[in-house]
Specification:
single chain, about 270 residues, alpha+beta, two-stranded antiparallel ribbon, 7 strands, about 25% helix, globular, disordered N terminus
């Protein structure tokens, strides 16, 4: 009897091996990239700076939340965050606060913008964000590109809010759209001071020093520009809201870790 049992066990071994080979291996969860130690959450450096991260919401030029934004956070390199803190201290003394719309932007989000720009049938947000621009010209006119300085971590989109300020109401998908260059009382409400256009307005009126922007609107743009430049930021001339801190910590690297607290874990 012992010999028979041993023989049966010997036969069973190849069968077990074959079953193991036939069984599918457990699925491996894709390991998300993490941020280098030089990245921080802006709220950890200066919690007084307002944050209204647009791309995690549908209120942007695509009309949908953007891939890569897991939490409404501003992630930036530490030198940029410290410089923003210095700007904020100066503005608070004058009764204002900074408000960021976007900071670090994953490459996957930029890829989503590119895919959207190629889909000429999707024009759901045209009435607000690009009323006078034909979607076929978004690449040629420089509104959309395959790489963004935001992905390097030292660039942010921001504005100024006069204190005290109520939060901006949420956008309701499907609501009537008003042109981003309409008078402030007509366009989508924003607790920002009047900059002449809304954020992400694809129009030449968004050029920081466009001569058609005058009076209080121009003064507000110059207030932001002067405060930012005093701390080492450089404005993109075509977008009054777009600033990059120089020298950049990562001048040649485009990151793709998601916007989340988890991306900073282990710092």
């Amino acid at each position: 009897m012992p010999r028979i049992n041993a023989a049966l066990r010997a036969l069973a071994l190849p069968v077990a091996a074959l079953l193991a080979l036939a069984s599918p291996a457990p699925a491996q969860a894709r390991e998300e990239p993490r941020a280098p130690k030089e990245f921080v959450a802006l709220s950890d450096v200066d919690p007084t700076i307002r944050q209204e991260i647009r791309y995690i919401t549908p209120h942007n030029f695509t009309g949908r939340p953007i891939d890569g934004y897991r939490r409404p956070l501003c992630l930036v390199t530490r030198p940029a965050a410290l410089a923003l803190h210095r700007v904020q201290r100066q503005l608070l003394r004058r009764g204002y606060t900074l408000k960021v719309y976007d900071c670090y932007r994953p490459q996957r989000a930029v890829d989503r913008f590119v895919d959207w720009a190629k889909d000429l049938g999707d024009q759901r947000m045209k009435g607000e964000f690009y009323p006078q621009v034909d979607k076929t010209r978004l690449f040629e006119d420089g509104y959309i590109a395959e790489k963004s300085g935001h992905s390097r971590g030292s660039t942010m989109d921001l504005t100024i809010v006069r204190l005290p300020a109520l939060p901006t109401r949420p956008y309701v998908p499907g609501e009537k759209l008003e042109p981003c260059y309409a008078p402030k009382k007509e366009r989508f409400p924003d607790n920002s001071v009047d900059m002449g256009t809304g954020y992400d307005c694809f129009d030449t009126l968004s050029h920081t020093l466009d001569p058609r922007i005058k009076g209080e609107q121009r003064a507000n743009r110059l207030l932001l520009k002067g405060a930012m430049e005093a701390q080492g930021f450089v404005n993109l001339a075509e977008e009054w809201w777009h600033y990059t801190f120089n020298p950049e910590t990562f001048p040649d690297t485009y990151f793709d870790f998601p916007v989340s607290r988890r991306s900073l874990t282990g710092h």
